[in-house]
Amino acid sequence: MNTSLPDSTNCRLWFDGRSLYIAAKVSTTPLAKIVIGSIALFFALPAPMLLFMQGGKALPMAVATFAAWIFLMGRIAFWNLFGEEVIILNTKSVSYQRSYGIIETKLQTYPLRRLRVDATITKEQDNIKYSKLKFYTYNEHDLPELLLESSIALPEQSIYAIFRSIDTMNMQENNFILWLN
Questions:
Q1: What is d(CA 148, CA 95) in angstroms, rounded to the nearest whole number?
Q2: Is the pLDDT at 176 greater than 70, yes or no?
């Protein structure tokens, strides 16, 4: 089952017979991509020059600080240029993975007793509400525990499609609770 969403949305949904896959891409405007890429290059290019200006005898602390700065700027740039998160949902677990284009984080899987999915509105733009998903499980004392929160805010049409897909999978019968705030 593939759920078709309008091309303007940054979310893809598909079902492989056992699990629902939710893939959301960071939606950055072309101008923002140019600015972020330029800033990242601006900070990355001087690195070799600094070492040559120091005659190859740069201070270790300065090099370590600069390397950390480059790593941080690179991570931010790659996330905003190519970022995507994938959430895999089935009756026994929720899994989460981030992709930075060329680098992917390790797939994290959380076991479920009972799942609650909340969609919390985080912003409104052009009369469209955007929400982040929060996934909870219930512990042995029947208290909710937050498993994960999506990083990317999705438009309400995507949230409704995700909720419909979960309902279509008959996950409601398996102690799934859907909540839209």
A1: 9
A2: no
